[in-house]
Amino acid sequence: MNDDSLQSGIPLPATRTPISRVVREVIEEVAPDETPIVDRMEGSSNSRAVRRLERSAKRSEPLAFGVEDLIPLVAPVVWIVLTKFLETIGENTAQSLWDRLLRWLRLRRLETVPPLTAEEIESACGAVREALLGKGFEADNADRITGALKESLRRHSGPDELGSGPNPD
Predict the structure, then answer these.
(1) Could you tell me if residue 123 is inside a domain?
(2) Which helix (H) or strand (E) holds 156?
(3) Cα dihedral sign, 79-130-72-141
(4) pLDDT tens for each residue of 32-90
(5) Structural domain total, the chain
(6) Which domain, by its residues, includes 32?
(7) Beta partners for 146?
(8) Integer-rounded Cα radius of gyration of the chain
(9) Residues 6 or more apart from 26 whose CB is under 8 A from it?
(10) In a domain, 64, yes or no
């Protein structure tokens, strides 16, 4: 709680973490040579960054950021898979048609990490690990990358409205 919420007795909404910040933390820890990719995408909206990364992946070309060799890159996999996973969580949690419509409108602008449970964090990391293995990463590297992702998501996905979010342990 911040000082303003202590004075009024009403907790103010916490600022959510941009997805790009989570990706940056992971890349800085496990693939610092890919930081220019994140730097280049960070000025864009999350949806634009994902579209650009997907287009580059479909063309099987380097990302035009000076990457000379066609090697599997961590940043696009983490960014794309994490975003798609978070969109899926939003779609699955909406119950009524009205909730689904509101979520759909919000998902078009998905920029931040929503509150996640420990199970959702595990599932997100599992989806990223599976994608990394599919791109040719060795299991040890995939585990190291998803370990960094798990820690970043734990730090940045605060408790949800019901207080059932992850514990910061």
Answers:
(1) yes
(2) helix 139-156
(3) positive
(4) 999 999 999 878 888 888 888 888 766 554 455 444 345 678 999 999 999 999 888 76
(5) 1
(6) 17-156
(7) none
(8) 17
(9) 74, 78, 145, 148, 149, 152
(10) yes
